[in-house]
Amino acid sequence: MQNAKDSFYMALRTRLATINPERTTLLRGAVRPGILVEEAEAPFSQLPNDVFVLRWLGLAVDMDLGSTMAAEECEIVYQTCGTQSFGGLDRGRSLSEMDEEFVAMLRPFYTPKLNYAVTPPAAMLTHVFWDEPGFGPIVVQRDRLSRTARVMVYSYQEQGE
Amino acid sequence: MAANWFSSPAPVARRVRAYFAPVNRVTQTPALFDPAEQGGFNLDAPPSPWISLGWIQGFTRKPSSKTSLVLTGIPAAPLEQVRETLQAQVSLQFLSWTKLTMALATGSQHMNLLAPAGGAAAAADGAQASAAVTPQSGSTATSIVLAASDAAKFTAGSIVALDVDYTGQTGYVGAPISGAYVRQALTDVDYIRRVTFNVGLVSQVSSTALTLAGPLPGGAPAAGVKLQAVTGFVDREGGSFYQEWSALFVMQGSQGERIFFHYPRLQTMTGAEETTLSLDGKHQGGQTRVLLKGQFLALPVTDPLDGEHVVCYRSFLPAPNALV
């Protein structure tokens, strides 16, 4: 299941780098596309602005198929205060941009499954695929707007996983 | 003193496992299942010739035999019952799409889409195929020895079909499983490989051999067998051929008990039909699993024990130490 989680994240990260190369974040001394997995970073006291944060929640499995299918629920949280140059008055537009980028990142709704535990990553036999996202309402905290979306990510367990 | 038995309530089972085995259409011989001898088999490794099709859902048995009364006296009163017709139906949904589940869930013959020859004219059930190659001696059910020039035509992940050339014969064709009934002579030399069930997935290719992911249903290639690459499968709504298979359905109870439903002869009775199942019950418009629907008519066999005509055997192996 970790391979599916890694593949989903890397697919979104690769796509984000194409959709909006300017959305980056500085993490552990490296500039990366502005998307991260919460459980793979040091705990945050406050989630970073203008970055997509992936958080893995629920898990379900269907073991009665030829290959066990795992359904992993991914919550994606993103927030923004807008830009300094506009004094934060563009925070609504900034959140809309992130909404659009997120929707674009999800297309197509599948990606090849790779094993990122080895270098270079090894292609596996199946694809990871997912549903359309379910969006939560905008949450306002003073000058910060945030949104949460949830995506169900499906994958088949392969031999050796 | 501790009790060494318990009173077992009705079995609790999750899903049903399905196994099918070919009926010899020429001799009209179904596959046997002996619950006394074979009832304890490993559900993942059924006894030959049964082929596991995994879990199924929506398994429904519908007996439709009719009985009538023999009346006597004034006023007439029932003297006894007689069975007027013997009939039963089975319906289910397969949880996988394979050569066999597709074939079982279609009302007609099921064909392999042979890899086309270069520049061949398009055809609805596959263009003229590229030339077949001949397995060499030393081939087995899982390893096909080929000339180096032939082996180079295949890659790992290819699907292959093995059977003999069509040479004008009529009647049931395809080995070891009849894939079609030819009423009048045809001209396609590859016809039998189009309908054969003797297919496999290539897992490895060396300079002189193909290694298959699983054994061929027909075992080691016989003399005269040739091999062609398959790109997929096709079936048609219509036609006159009916698939006929022996079927075995198993319910494994929570206490180790087993219920078997053995249908010696099941014929597909409807055309190809699919149903969808949403993966996420809370998101009905999202990803859906496409299931093959199978509906079958149970045909009778004569039980050699007493000469009775029957369509199904239901067996029950109680849980260990359960009262009977």
**Separation, N- and C-terminal Cα atoms of chain B:** 21 Å
- List the helices and strands of chain A in order: HEEEEEHEEEEE
The proportion of strand residues of chain B reads 35-45%
Q: Tell me the span between the first and last alpha carbons of chain A.
A: 8 Å
The helix count of chain B comes to 4
Averaged pLDDT of chain B: 93
* SS content category of chain B: mainly beta
What's the β-strand tally of chain B? 20
What overall form of chain B do the CA principal axes indicate?
A: globular
> Which protein chains are joined by the largest interface, and how many residues does each one contribute?
A-B, 12 and 12 residues
Multimer state: heterodimer
Radius of gyration of chain A, taken over Cα atoms and rounded to an integer in Å: 17 Å
Q: What portion of residues of chain B is helical? A: under 10%
Instruction: Give start-end ranges of low-pLDDT stretches of chain B.
Output: none
What structural class do helix, strand and pairing data of chain A support? alpha+beta
**Largest beta-sheet characterization of chain B:** 6 strands, antiparallel, barrel
Biggest sheet: strand arrangement of chain B: 1-2-5-17-15-14
Number of strands of chain A: 10
Give the CA-based shape of chain A. Answer: globular
Number of helices of chain A: 2
| Helix fraction bin of chain A | 10-25%
